Amino acid sequence: MEKKDFSSVFFMRDSKFQRTIPLSMVICLILLLLIEFFCTPTDSYLYGMISVQNICYLQVIPVMLLTSLSGYTVGPVVVLAYFSVVCMARHNLPYHAFVLLAASLIANLPVAYQWYKSFWKTLLTTVIAALILGNGWQFLNLILEAKKAHFGSEIHHFLYALPSCFTVSVLMYLFTNFVPQKIRSFFFCSVYESTSLAELRATIAKRKGQKISVKVTGMIVSEAIILIVASFGFANGLLSEFKIFDDWATIVFATRLTILMAIIAIPIVLVIYTYANLNITHPIALMAKSVEDSNFCNITEHTRDIPRLDIKSLELPNKDEIGVLYDSLVDMLSTTESYIKNLERSQMLETQLATAKAASKAKSDFLSNMSHEIRTPINAVLGLNEMILRESKDSEITRYAKDIENAGKALLSIVNDILDFSKIEAGKLEIIPTNYDLSSAVNDLVNMISKRAEDKHLKFYVSVEADTPHNLYGDDVRIKQCCLNILTNAIKYTNEGSVSLNITSKKVDYSHAMITVHVVDTGIGIKDKDIPKLFTAFQRIEEKRNRTIEGTGLGLNIVQSLLNLMDSRLEVVSVYGEGSDFSFSVMQGVIDWEPIGDFKETYRKTVENTVSYHELFTAPKAKILVVDDTELNLTVVKGLLKQTKIQVDTVISGYDALEALQKTHYDIVFLDHRMPGMDGIQTFQKMLTLENNQSKGVPVIALTANAVSGAKEMFLTTGFTDYMTKPIEGKKLEEMIMHYLPQDLIENVEISMEDGIMTLDENGEVESNQAEAEREKFSSVTGISLDDALKYTGGADVLEQTLKEFYKNIDKKAGEIENFVEQKDWRNYTILVHALKSSARLIGAEKLSEDAKYLEKCGDEENVAEITEKTPALLEMYRSYKNHLAPLCAEEDDDSLKEEMPLSQYQEAVANIGECVQAFDYDTADQIILMMKDYKIPAGKKEHFEALCEAVSAVDHDKILKIVLQ
């Protein structure tokens, strides 16, 4: 509530009331005296009772109007003044003043309860007032004339009083309903129209306990009643004692004395009551209400918006103890309110801090989970790709695989940046220098950018100063990230022309060089005033003009932050409408001052050198345990360690790991962090207290795809020996095993060009005599291009398995194709011919693949004539491969020497195949099938496995899932 809503409580402070109340009192008194002295006959008995009655009802009109307009106290005070003046002037007692007093007492009630707003309530007011005043006059008349009442006199006196009461009611009805509010506000009766005051009074009235105003009023009224009753009793007693009058005269005399006492006492009581209310009870009640409203304990969600009384708005003028109490309460509540606000602010800050911590933890947990989910498939891709790099002898495949490795590592670095929570926070990015080849970094940028430039028909120029050293030491990931952001922006904002990447160097000292990068484009350019905005996060310049260009406005802000960490900064020179030049210079360590020359040639040589993989050691007597819930990861680890001859045991859960540790001694344990059921940390803690642990005290190394910073510290604090992030790099894995494996188990390998182990072919590529021996097994196979088959399958082992699968399905698939032709089911016919096209090409059967490709096209077009004519020849050629592949595939596999796969592992592998097929990842499903074929299938599951192999080979989605659920 506003302060003005309560100003009416202290009506004597209102300047309008201070003028209208005294003025109306004077006018009313003058009217009463004029009527008294100019209208009353002097020769009648007791001033002529009949005439006095008429004059009395005439005087009722100004008295009732005064009380209605100015309040219940004003009318009785004027009546008392009138009574005093008449007594002194006429030396007689105007007993009819009692009727005027009664009129003043009842006049304020209809105003307070807003009866004059209603026509019918106004009429009711008239009737009630006439009855009260008429009977009051009758009572007075009986007392004055000492007569007894007779039946029917009530109607007579009611009719005498009715005109005056009707006049007052009509005037007040017109005043209340038709006089403008602006005029009504000059009179005290307007306070009863205040809804806020009514609400305040209602609220105070609802408070528990007896009100102080009621107590004070009760005391004053009780005192007045006691005085009046006492005067009546004392009068009767005295008159009886002196025996002056008879009994009836005694009663009449006592009653007259009581009336006179009431005429005097009631106005005085009302004045005292009003004074007490204004200066004592009302201030105390309002202070109590404001203190109650200031009690913050009573403020709830439902009562927060309810208007409240502010103690400061009262502005009590009292200079007594109440004023002192008021000032003390104001100071106390102000201090309390200030303290509570500070406390609430402190609590709010604590709540916000707790919320921020909870959000931070949730964010960290989310990023940790996402890190694991995203990095796991990247781990598989890079791990399998490294196996291709190791085993492939085809230069083109090697080059493709190297590009996959570089792109995969670039993707991995981006994922790391996004997912590392500590790096998201400002100032938490770290520069991690390492040895790198500049030619490889430039080649990665070319691979990632050239396609984008080609799509927009832009020329992309790359110039690397020939004298620039290429074996450098620095954070190549961050430098590539900066270059990639700038190049991406250049292509996005260039519609025609070219984008150029220029790299130069300047020698600083014997071990450092300043590498300078310029990215120049012929794009839309930047206005000078907009250049500072480039480095503001989430802000893009000329948003309206560039609304069709994707971007968040973060790229260059990140670039500037990274360069700041490398003691550099991004410089921008731009001409609006012509193009821009973005440049930066970074200090890099130089490992070797050999110049880069032609960066493409240098990169080619680097790739050739990286192809020359050879294991760092062999350890055939060593045994390690790898625990990971993903079979594919286990396959990758076993493949990476294949050349080291280490005995690798794998399990897919923490429970299986504990069981294996009780049976076998391992030299090293690799333990994945995130696993269902019991995770890596829980498994490690169980290992420490495991009874019959055969590998107690051996190194335990954590494996995780969790890229969140602080992970390494967490694992080391938990008690792990070391920590390795996924995707696992073969070289780092071998280095870590060499570091922790007992030296007596390690057999170092000398790479010799003369010992027949490794040789170089005419192209300078690594080729092993063992690989040549493996090719011999395919010499009896006809109808295929062995080079193409090896290229497509990636190695002799995979090719052998693929040929056997192809051989096994010839009769079945050929029969299905024939059936679909007879049934004219061209959709399924096309699907099988498509599969034949792919599988034939995979084994190097080019002619068969091309014919199947042609009939696939006919199936798509539903060219029935061509299908009917060409299909028999296709099937004849398809079936001829039973003879072509028979020398290799007709022999029954002897799995007696294979290790039998445990039933639980078989079931887990089948479930993994189902998950891969549901995600339409048939390549991974094929890899799992090949892995399973290295083992002896459990008894009773051979037919199930053969059916599963056929379904996977046929890429029959529904059938695979059905078999998996069996």
Notes on the structure:
Strands 1, 2, 3, 4, 5, 6 and 7 form a 7-stranded mixed beta sheet that branches. The chain is of the alpha/beta class and 966 residues long. It is 60% helix and 10% strand. The chain is elongated, with a radius of gyration of 54 Å.
- N→C terminal distance: 76 Å
Number of strands: 16
Average pLDDT level: 75
Strand content: 5-15%
Radius of gyration of CA atoms, rounded to a whole number? 54 Å
Total helical segments: 33
Q: Specify the structural class.
A: alpha/beta
Shape: elongated
How does the major sheet shape up? 7 strands, mixed
- Ranges where pLDDT stays below 50 over 5 or more residues in a row are 1-12, 43-50, 242-246, 420-427, 544-554, 750-770
How much helical structure, as a percent, in the residues?
55-70%
